[in-house]
Amino acid sequence: MATRKTSSDDLLGPVTLAVGQEDLLLDRAVREVVAAARAADADTDVRDLTPDQLQTGTLAELTSPSLFAERKVLVVRNAQDLSAETVKDVKGYLDAPVEDITLVLLHAGGAKGKGLLDAARKAGAREVACPKTTKPAERLTFVRQEFRTLGRSATPEACQALVDSIGSDLRELASAVTQLTADVDGTIDEAVVGRYYTGRAEASSFNVADRAVEGRAAEALEALRWSLSTGVAPVLITSALAQGVRAIGKLSSARGGRPADLARELGMPPWKIDRVRQQMRGWTPDGVALALRAVAEADAGVKGGGDDPEYALEKAVVAVARAARLRRN
To answer: What is the 3-state secondary structure (H, E, C) of 85-143?
Structure first.
């Protein structure tokens, strides 16, 4: 996964082009560049920009000479959605990039915005492929590579069992691999995966919560119905929803910093800090408040305060997913 297509592999080169629609791989491409930049200069200024934030002239302003000569990483998400005027600015910059500035363009690929994609390639951008995984075999390959990257051995049966238990979400699969390698010594086999994940209610509950706080209502409802059909207790699902929303609220109100520092401050593992940071997009303080109220109502409903616990959960899942999209709406 995330294989590079160009001969250049300089993380601090002028331009990195991450192409595809797999969010985990796109985020990893960004983190890899940012980590390299901060290793070279701990005070690196990182700007994470969406198309609506990159207006005509903004790029010129961000790349203008600084009195402090600081290193910068400029991340442009959904570059295929940039306006025609801004695309002209970016193309002009590609012809004369500024030293100590790395521009990271995240592009979905395809026909939309292809002119910018072609221009970046012609300029010699370092390219990272981030394709969406749509086939079970691709997810299986991803899991195998995750274990290899962490220097651990897992049997083919264990890899397959993990995919069968976790499902299609790469972020969930990556987290599961990380947990297994941290907790288990020696070769990871199918029995180990079974103890951790197969039929495990907590894993199912948190899958519902993750999809909801990411604003993916349809997927959250699908995961909810599957969880309930397999016997997961409703109270576990409301607990997972509450934890997911509280994590969003805690991290959004925390001061910025490295995952390790935030992990100590908030009592979360560093990998969870990274995940919640991605889930925070679209959330507002009002959204967090609305979601917590919805989860509290559902919790009361599943504990005897309502006639239909399943309906209470569905209502809460939809409310949380909508709250996650307040800023985007």
So the answer is: HHHHHHHHHHHCCCCCEEEEEEECCCCCCHHHHHHHHHCCCEEEEECCCCCHHHHHHHH
Q: Residue 65: which residues within 8 A CB-CB, separation 6 or more?
A: 98
Strand boundaries in the chain, DSSP class E: 15-20, 45-49, 72-76, 101-107, 126-130
Q: Within the chain, how many helices (H) and strands (E) appear?
A: 15, 5
Diameter of the chain by CA atoms? Answer: 66
Place of tokens 């592009």: 107
CA torsion, points 22, 23, 25, 27, in degrees to nearest 10?
Answer: 160
Does the pTM exceed 0.70? Answer: no
Distance separating alpha carbons of residues 179 and 182, to the nearest angstrom: 5
> Is the distance from CB of 75 to CB of 49 less than 8 angstroms?
yes
Chain-centre distance of CA 151, in angstroms?
A: 23
Mean pLDDT of 271-298: 87
User: What is the pLDDT averaged over residues 243-247?
Assistant: 89
**CA quadruple 222, 240, 256, 14: dihedral, nearest 10:** -30
Least Cα distance to 259 among 237, 242, 277 occurs for 277
- Phi, psi at 219, each rounded to 5°: -70, -35
Whether pLDDT at 165 is above 80: no
DSSP class of residue 8 equals: -
Strand-pair partners of 47: 74
Q: Tell me, what amino acid is at 306?
A: G
SS3 assignment, position 288: helix
pLDDT at 195 over 70: yes
